[in-house]
Specification:
By secondary structure, the chain is of the alpha/beta class. About 25% of the residues lie in helices and about 25% in strands. It is built from 9 helices and 17 strands. Strands 12-15-14-13-16-17 form a 6-stranded antiparallel barrel. A 5-stranded parallel sheet has the order 3-2-1-4-7, sandwiched between helices. The radius of gyration is 22 Å and the shape is globular. The termini are far apart. Its EC number is 2.8.1.13. Catalyzes the 2-thiolation of uridine at the wobble position (U34) of tRNA, leading to the formation of s(2)U34. InterPro entries: MnmA-like (IPR004506), MnmA-like_C (IPR046885), MnmA-like_central (IPR046884), MnmA-like_central_sf (IPR023382), Rossmann-like_a/b/a_fold (IPR014729). It is found in: Cytoplasm.
């Protein structure tokens, strides 16, 4: 099989490419240049896609004896990932840029070009598994190493894309074994730190980075009754669940901290309240997609049991979900009801659904609410 190995310059992608070679595939390595002005060096685990990363990818390919290329995807990355990140925050939502990069860059733009050039599959260093189900169709599953599992950020993959995905690290029990294997193979990236931050905000200051790209203007901070408690420097810089940085002069009646409950960019308002008001038991998702075949319940709208994960490496919660329908603006819409209340759920995040280790699919969270609190404030039936 002719395989294009996506080489990030890290240890995972290097070992994944090496295993593809060992499996007898005809492997070509490619590093994606995602920035027009990449930094020369990394700082620990901050950033990626630097000149240093490109050099590390080239050295790994040279060690493996496979061809190496660099493809410039910087314009596509800027439009589909960076600009999307900014526009989502400007709309008061909290996006996941890694998931968007997988969706738009690695498994759309890269895979499309690979197929056009005659490759059969794209191999990456993601910790996830593609398996064939009893019905003969491919499914996406969690990796063997729960601590490194990356199936959440791959929940956007479609059935057609799964046919051309190769994840050689799927069954590796731990990252330590991957590093040990890299050292045995003589790969220079064996001890290279993982990248944990948003790659295009390497200093980790998301608020400062956004302030340079979004027109932030002062506005009111109010409670759920509409009383003004203070002012903010720009509503788009706040996220649901945030506690720090509110700088409210008026303490809560019970003396307890307040948290951001809602961001309203249209009127530049931030709504705050007590921790218990963050509890969410109803989620509505839009732009839903299935990672493989749709469940039979999708067509009928019947509820189905599942598990919910709404952030990378976050908690996994039993839930009941159903398909609400489809519209031209928002695509397929889902309703998800976790079996217990959740906190830290914000519009813009991705909700990924599982059954056991199998990834069912994902949606973008459009609204997250507490039915009891909402219905008490609004007597209109839900």
């Amino acid at each position: 099989m002719k395989v294009l190995a996506a080489m990030s310059g890290g240890v995972d992608s290097a070992v994944a490419a090496a295993r593809a070679v060992d499996a007898g595939h005809d492997v070509v390595g490619v590093h994606l240049a995602l920035s027009r002005m990449p930094g020369t060096l990394r700082t620990g685990s901050r950033g990626c896609c630097t000149i240093e990363d490109a050099s590390d990818a080239w050295r790994a390919c040279e060690k493996l004896g496979i061809p190496y290329y660099t493809w410039d995807f910087s314009e596509r990355f800027a439009e589909d990932v960076v600009e999307d990140f900014v526009s989502e925050y400007a709309a008061g939502r909290t996006p996941n840029p890694c998931l968007r990069c997988n969706e738009k860059i690695k498994f759309t733009a890269l895979l499309e070009r690979a197929l056009q050039l005659g490759f059969d599959a794209v191999a990456t260093g993601h910790y996830a598994a593609v398996r064939r189900g009893d019905d003969g169709h491919l499914q996406l599953h969690r990796a063997a190493d729960d601590a490194k599992d990356q199936s959440y950020v791959l929940g956007v993959l479609t059935a057609d894309q799964l046919e051309h995905c190769l994840f050689p690290l799927a069954d590796t029990p731990s990252k330590d074994l991957v590093r040990a294997e890299a050292a045995e193979r003589g790969l220079s990236v064996a001890k290279k730190p993982d990248s944990h931050d948003i790659c295009f905000i390497p200093d980790g200051d998301t608020r400062g980075w956004l302030a340079e790209r979004i027109d932030l203007e002062p506005g009111p901070i109010i409670d759920v009754q509409g009383r003004e408690l203070g002012t903010h420097a720009g509503s788009q810089a706040y996220t649901v669940g945030q506690r720090r940085g509110l700088a409210l002069g008026r303490p809560a009646p019970d003396g307890k901290p307040r948290f951001v409950l809602e961001v309203r960019p249209k009127d530049n308002t931030v709504v705050v309240g007590s921790r218990d008001m963050l509890a969410v038991d109803r989620i509505t998702g839009i732009r839903a997609s299935w990672a493989g075949q749709r469940l039979p319940e999708a067509a009928s709208g019947e509820p189905f049991d599942c598990q919910l994960q709404f952030r990378a490496h976050g908690e996994i919660v039993p839930a009941v979900a159903r398909v609400l329908g489809h519209d031209g603006e928002h695509g397929e819409r889902w309703e998800i009801r976790p079996t217990r209340s959740l906190t830290g759920v914000a519009p813009g995040q991705s909700a990924v659904l599982y059954q056991g280790t199998r990834v069912l699919g994902q949606c973008a969270i459009d609204s997250a609410r507490n039915a009891a609190l909402t219905d008490a404030a609004d007597p209109t039936p839900a």
